[in-house]
Amino acid sequence: MPTPSDVVSVRRFIGFTNYLSKFLPRLRDALEPLRKLTSPDAEWLWTDIPDSAVRQVKLLVTKVPVLKFFDSTGSLTLQCDASDKGLGAILLKKGQPTAYASRALTYAESQYVQIEKQLLAVVYGSERFHTYTYGREVFVESDHKPLEVIFKKPLHRAPKKLQRMLMREIESINMTQHIRLKPSTLQEIKDHTQKEDSLLELIKVIKAGWPETKGELCHLVLPFFDVRDELSVCDGIVIRGERVVVPKSLPRDMLYRLHYAHSGVVSTLLLARESVYWPGMSGEIKQFIEMCDVCRAFDRKQPKETLIPHEVPDRPWAKVGVDLFTYRGRNYLICVDYYSSFWEIDCLDKTTSGAVVQKLKSHFARHGIQETCVSDNGP
């Protein structure tokens, strides 16, 4: 298998490896640098990145696969996931892989919100493994909690944008469907929910019914009153619409995950609003990003200068600050004492240094000679 030397040989290399894609996990990620070279707008430039990708793909191809022979008895597990660039699916039998599948997203699909990408991954895996899954019980595993809630609703109650994909998925599988989170993700959220008093109280209120006014509520659940119509409980986890309500002990860790790419306030908020919720989330995200050292270092805006506080003197009028300002077309001089914050204002006919000195002399004659005078070096 020689190293590609032009676009045609790159396409030939990709085609050959795609033939073996069901045996090769995460093949799409490995081929991504090579796929970029086949774009009509891309300039041919062979660097260490595509060369490393070729070596990685060769390693995948020559490695002995560990696929399990398909067994038609019992249930199957279909693990699906989606990233910003592609979809992936694994068909498992008793925890061992039977087949792999992956593909890149089209430009239009890459513009989907995350929940649409995750559902598209389920549809792709269902259609790709249709021969294995048709008419059988299949457990579909995903790390996207809102999918579990959507699949439990009737089709007509699902979001309009997702209904067509749901119908494709149902037609291709024709099976008993179960969408469930990966155990590690689910258990982590459940454990923290069970330890938090406010969420335990919230679960009780959701099951018992909400009162008509806030005054009848416990103070722990007051922040959720305005969104009460969107809240539900699924297997011990609180859900707002299609988003997971995150316990207070997790937001800091969640903030790091959401802002891992340092994509800015707007992009981070959009990402968060697709999947998670907690009271005050928007404010915490904005504050977290404002304090991010990496974002501040590469911010295009002029960084704010850190304020330097002045020392308070031991006696009145030992240190004063002076400045000029204009109000309604007239010029004024302000003189402020740093000890007492007492100020004096004089109207000036001229803003020359002589006029300013003359006014300051009168102040110093009344209050005493200062040790330090702070100004911006005006006239």
TrEMBL record:
Native species: Stylophora pistillata (Smooth cauliflower coral)
Official protein name in the record: Retrovirus-related Pol polyprotein from transposon 17.6
InterPro entries per the UniProt record, alphabetical: DNA/RNA_pol_sf (IPR043502), Integrase_H2C2 (IPR041588), Retrovirus_Pol_polyprotein (IPR050951), Rev_trsase/Diguanyl_cyclase (IPR043128), RNaseH-like_sf (IPR012337), RNaseH_sf (IPR036397), RT_RNaseH_2 (IPR041577)
Pfam families the record matches: Integrase_H2C2, RT_RNaseH_2
Highest taxon, organism lineage: Eukaryota
UniProt gene name: pol
Domain Reverse transcriptase/retrotransposon-derived protein RNase H-like, chain residue ranges per copy: 46-139
Integrase zinc-binding domain boundaries: 246-297
UniProt-listed GO biological process terms: DNA metabolic process
Molecular function GO labels: nucleic acid binding
